[in-house]
Amino acid sequence: MSFPVQRPRRLRSNEIIRRMVRETALSVDDFLYPVFVTHGEGVARPVEAMPGIYNYSIDRLLEELTEVAGLKIPGVLLFGIPAVKDDLGSEAYARDGIVHEAVRAIKKAFPGLLVVTDICLCEYTSHGHCGVVENGSVLNDPTLELLVKTALSHAAAGADMVAPSDMMDGRVGKIRAALDAQGYENVLIMAYSAKYASAFYGPFREAAGSAPQFGDRKTYQMDPANAGEALREARLDIEEGADIVMVKPALAYLDVIRRVKDETGFPVAAYNVSGEYSMVKAAAQKGWIDERKIVMELLTGIKRAGADIILTYHAKDAAKWLREGE
After folding, report:
1. Is the confidence at residue 204, as pLDDT, over 90?
2. Annotated binding residue at 9?
3. Of residues 85, 174, 248, 281, which has the active-site annotation?
4. pLDDT band, residue 233 (cuts 50/70/90)
């Protein structure tokens, strides 16, 4: 028998066979598109650190979502920019808060679009932390009460899914119990289970005005050096009633995505965060990379690592490129 017996290149010899044996298939159905909504009318304020991303007023957001829905992107993740910030993040759970108004408007205009709301206080607090602060410390249990109020108010506005991103201990269980008690047992919870204290969040903090005014978030967000801890966090959230567990960021934590998927068997979301997006955009603007090829390779890698859902600011572009490739 001639050498070599196996020639793997035969399976790469043309596009047809490459498609037939392809192990990972990226789809528009994998995407959730994060969007920022603010007060006012006619507002489309560009986020300087995130080319192509804007803070929208509700009317302009609905225009944006016309394109999103046309691209068959299944849903959005809403972040609110409040009119006024205070120590307790009151607009996060106010019935007339910006997210509440946006949810109602979106569900009326696009009833088939999945609406997910971020459940956290950092965008709404004057100090920029994700919970109640006392004497320079973020208090866990008093924060849970406000997170529950936020989740309930978003569910009442019509949110399909709530996504607690605060990393307070026990918040998933408290939110699940409260939703069920109020008749919202069909509202899903996507828990930010492994949310790392990452340097990749900088552009988001510009978009949301959510940078902490003192200290950092290392007492509640996870140490980037830890992977086993992510598994413990994911299991705790599942035990408390999470429907989907998330790893955030994505690209530096592909190993964590894989382990969480393999060891829990639960649906896993991965957040391709603002810093990851902005680095690609900056390099593409310099002409150093092919943006389309890079984005599709990165998103395929996140999917290959085990993500069932990818939250990405690239969603619109990726959806267009996938359509062109069909």
Report:
1. no
2. no
3. 248
4. very high
Place of tokens 């408390």: 240
Rounded mean pLDDT, 204-231: 89
What pLDDT score does 214 carry?
A: 82
Asked whether 231 and 208 are in contact (CB, 8 A), the reply is no
Task: Note the helical H segments in 13-77.
Answer: 15-20, 58-70
pLDDT at position 325: 78
Answer yes or no: 108 catalytic.
no
Homologous superfamily of 23-325 in CATH?
Aldolase class I (3.20.20.70)
Exactly one of 72, 108, 174, 195 is catalytic; which is it? 195
Between 208 and 83, name the one with better pLDDT.
Answer: 83
248 catalytic, yes or no?
yes
Structure tokens given for 147: 């997170």
Distance CA 308, CA 243 (A): 12
Instruction: Name the H helices within the chain.
Output: 15-20, 58-70, 98-109, 140-157, 171-181, 202-208, 228-240, 254-264, 274-285, 291-305, 315-325
Tell me whether residue 240 is annotated as binding. no
Q: List, in sequence order, the alpha helices (H) in 8-91.
A: 15-20, 58-70
Residue 1 confidence (pLDDT)? 58
> What residue spans define the domains of the chain?
23-325
